[in-house]
Design brief:
Layout (H helix, E strand, L loop, with lengths): L1 E7 L2 H8 L6 H7 L1 E4 L1 H6 L5 E5 L6 E8 L7 E5 L2 H6 L13 E9 L7 H9 L4
Parallel strand pairs: 1-5, 2-4
Antiparallel strand pairs: 1-6, 2-5, 3-4, 3-6
Helix pairs in contact: 1-2
């Protein structure tokens, strides 16, 4: 399902990040998640987890789902954190800032495990060591 990705801070994400808790289970529980509208959640088969893939197909992350009326059908929200940052296209279109809001992505159900923040860093930035 192609949808529009919106990223941003949540109160809990901010509290955990500013408190130095980015490697905790609580941070992962708050941030390794994709919020879906009830209609899109149902269309996808009410999955526990989804894989969110960048427009160019190069980057994807498995994250848990959250069904909520806080997002509109055709849009998803992910807290601003390492999981969403992997997916966001780094091209800034000469603005100096990537497209954190309004980027097209693909969302599909998955059984893949959700990586910890540490494991995301190792996989994406340290050659998987």
């Amino acid at each position: 399902m192609e949808v529009i990705l919106i990223t941003g801070s949540t109160i809990e994400e901010g509290r955990l990040a500013k408190g130095g808790d980015k490697l905790t289970d609580g941070y992962q529980a708050e941030c390794a998640v994709c919020w879906l509208s009830p209609a899109d959640f149902e269309t996808l088969g009410s999955p526990e987890k989804v894989r969110v893939t960048s427009r160019n197909g190069k980057h994807s992350m498995a994250v848990r789902t959250k069904c909520t009326d806080s997002v509109e059908p055709g849009q998803v929200f992910m807290p601003r954190a390492i999981w969403s940052n992997v997916i966001v296209d780094p091209d800034t279109f000469s603005t100096g800032s990537p497209l954190y809001k309004g980027a097209p992505v693909e969302v599909e159900p998955t059984d893949a495990g959700v990586l910890s923040a540490r494991d995301v860093v190792l996989k994406m930035y340290a050659g998987g060591q």
